[in-house]
Amino acid sequence: MKVSNCLATILALSMLVTACSSGGTQGTGKSGENNNKPAELVKREPTEIVFASELGKTPEDFEKEIGDPLRKKFPWLTVTYIERGTGKDITDLLTAGTPPDIYWYVYNRFPNKIQSLGLEYDMTDLIKKYKFDTSRLESASLKALDQFTGGKGIYGLPFVSSTSVMFYNKDIFNKFGVPYPKDGMTWEEVLDLAKKMTRNFDGTSYRGLASFHAYLLRENPQGLKPIDPKTGKASLNTEEWKKLFQSLLRIYEIPGNMRPKSRATNPELQAFAKDQNIAMAVLNNDLNHVKLIPEGMNWDVVSMPTYADKPKTADQASPWMYSIMSTSKQKEAAFEVLSYLLSDEFLLNESKRGVRTPTTNEQIKKAFGSDSPFFKGKNVGAYYYHQSAQPPSVSGNPQIMSLILDADTVVNNKFLDIILDGKDINTALREGDEEINKLIEKAQKK
């Protein structure tokens, strides 16, 4: 009996050890979470992760949208946010020896804000180690940085996929007795409708169509860039760019539909939301833009117009990216944080509050705006009606592509020269090409 009791005791202890061992590694199997976390992370050592951004976000919004959810998910984590402000640019933080662990930005700032400062960090190994499924993110957003990196490595992960949609003022259409626009319209159809909606009525001048043309030029569905990623030379003075200019110039050639005599970045948004004298406006889908629309305004949204040769294709994705800084001493913890911020669980909540995420999950797309009072009763399907256009071919020349922001400014200024000053389109494109090449030549001499 004693031998039998001893064997029973050994067997019980063996089962207990097996049970404890099987519970030692956490893993839920949910997309975006780890199933094989390294021992140092399982121990949950107290760790601080510092965020910073070139994009404005109040500390209150950061805590609500990012900080608090992270602390709830990772109680061992200290989350710190450096708000944008004087003396807190990424260059200032680097000089002070206090760069963040995670930085977020609009993708086209990567060459200037990260790459030129030597802060880029390839997350490929961490993506493999943590089995992060990049196929859950739309390729157009995921590959947005390739034109700056030559497609070698993954230096940022998208968490917002910005694109254009067309807002419209229902009250103006009701006033004129004209049917509302609908999803899937082409530019030709929208321009015809804009002509009908541009008129004087009861002493008020109404414009049929407005646009955020700087964005439409920059993120055009044709994949055109003012600097050729392959040659590193200006590429504005081409037939392709001329056709794009001509297509958007038609908006302002409609009699009575000229935009304000201003070189401001986007006076059209204010005119649509505040003055409320614009019937339709093709604008960026940024949630902050929607928040500018006053309560009580009778508006809705449809998909952005498409070109005949680019059916079902919106503009290029303009994603907001998360990057881990090369200087971070907490890269693994930072990546675990990013894995959660890009998990289906987190992206679903973001989608519900009206953020267009770069998800490929149809259920997350369908949930867009469902918890937001701004989108109640709106045609939210318009936000995912089209697919994003793919970014242009890769380059990988950081010295040249770091000038893309300046080149985009040249493009917008030349477009304004035409519509505001009456400059000939061929002259504007030729001058723009010359200005961009001078920027390139100057950069090469440094």
TrEMBL record:
What are the subcellular locations of this protein? Cell envelope
Q: Which residues cross the membrane?
A: none
Pfam families the UniProt entry points to: SBP_bac_1
Predominant place of localization: other
UniProtKB keywords:
Periplasm, Signal, Transport
UniProt family annotation: Belongs to the bacterial solute-binding protein 1 family.
Q: What is this protein called?
A: Extracellular solute-binding protein
**Classification of source organism:** Bacteria, Bacillati, Bacillota, Bacilli, Bacillales
